[in-house]
Specification:
CATH class of the domain at 43-130 and 182-287: Alpha Beta
Bound molecules: zinc ion
CATH superfamily of the domain at 43-130 and 182-287: Glycoside hydrolase/deacetylase
Distance between the termini: 22 Å
Structural class: alpha/beta
Helix content: 40-55%
Strand content: 5-15%
Largest sheet: 7 strands, mixed
CATH topology of the domain at 43-130 and 182-287: TIM Barrel
């Protein structure tokens, strides 16, 4: 099954690369680049767990094409104080805190001294595992109805129910916790925090889907993750990223109550002076896929084109329109 999925993914990526080259040839990326290089416009990009070569290619492309990198504080000043930025500003963030980031992206970040914010789910760091990885790896230990597509199905449940199932998985006699888990350790975080261009933000405690949380769960996830990060790092935490990009509007008041200044989504638009600081868009670079496809993602060209293409094919084939696929994690 794993081999079959890998093969499917390979063919998907080959087709996507061909489509991306077509979009590049038609001038889509060139036009988007011009838009992002205008005054009053910030390019916001986020990664999860990219391989070294892909991340380096993105950074080299950005530098060669007139972009430069800004910190979270510079973005906050831009949004709240209208502090102008020179054209070509890019805000780069990483979600989750993947251990591989240490070897795959940190050498490039150090080489170019790029200001980076890592969004961390504090409870997952303490557990030494991401629940979504463990649920997929140990799906045979989950209730039978969740064993096919466990990640997608767990995302449909209330937060309380999802947490109960994950806790049961961790208590299962046949479950073995990973020796070298995927997340950063606290020691990794402290080591990174010593670098002046590295910052951290909250990604809740348990990497919850905020829209599946009851009001008091949401309050806990937003407050506790900030408190823990502040205890670990001894600095004020002002940034938040919505896990999986989901939000339903209840979050803003709670984020403000606990002193956050900005919150990042996965909507793909430029950041401008008009952007709501609690709905900061970010263009998603995929961990796999070609550089050509990811250049289209990085510049926010890919998703709008795919949505139009799907609408067109649904219309032509008279099929009901499917929901746009969300980027996991
Ligand atoms: Zn995440």
């Amino acid at each position: 099954m794993l081999e079959e999925n890998k093969l499917k993914r390979f063919f998907r990526n080959v087709l996507a690369a061909m489509l991306a080259l077509f979009l590049i040839m038609l001038g889509y990326t060139q036009r988007a680049k011009k838009q992002y290089l205008q005054n009053g416009c910030v390019l916001s990009i986020f990664f999860h767990n990219p391989p070294r070569r892909l991340f380096l290619s993105c950074i080299k492309w950005l530098k060669k094409n007139g972009f430069y990198f800004i910190s979270t504080q510079q973005l906050i000043d831009f949004l709240y104080l209208r502090t102008p930025l020179l054209p070509g500003a890019v805000w780069i963030t990483f979600d989750d805190g993947w251990k591989n980031n240490l070897t795959q992206v940190m050498p490039t970040i150090k080489q170019y001294q790029i200001p980076i914010t890592f969004f961390i789910p504090t409870g997952e760091i303490e557990n030494g595992a991401f629940w979504f990885c463990e649920a997929i790896k140990h799906k045979n230990l989950l209730p039978e109805e969740l064993q096919i597509n466990p990640f997608e199905k767990l995302l449909q449940l209330t937060n309380h129910e999802r947490q109960r199932i994950i806790n049961e998985l961790y208590r299962n006699d046949d479950y073995t916790s990973p020796e070298n888990g995927e997340p950063f350790t606290l020691a990794d975080i402290n080591e990174l925090a010593a670098l002046p261009y590295i910052g951290f933000g909250s990604h809740t405690v348990n990497h919850v889907v905020t829209t599946n949380c009851a009001r008091e769960e949401l309050d806990f996830e937003i407050q506790k993750s900030r408190l823990v990060l502040e205890q670990w790092l001894g600095v004020e935490i002002t940034a938040f990223a919505y896990p999986n990009g989901n939000y339903d509007g209840r979050e803003k008041a709670i984020l403000q109550k606990y002193g956050y200044k900005i919150a990042a989504t996965i909507e793909e638009h430029p950041v401008t002076y008009a952007t709501d600081p609690f709905l900061v868009p970010r263009n998603c670079v995929l961990d796999d896929g070609s550089f050509a496809e990811n250049l289209c993602h990085l510049l926010g060209v890919w998703t709008p084109f795919i949505i139009k293409l799907k609408r067109l094919t649904s219309w032509a084939l008279n099929l009901p329109q499917s929901q746009q696929a969300r980027t996991p994690y």
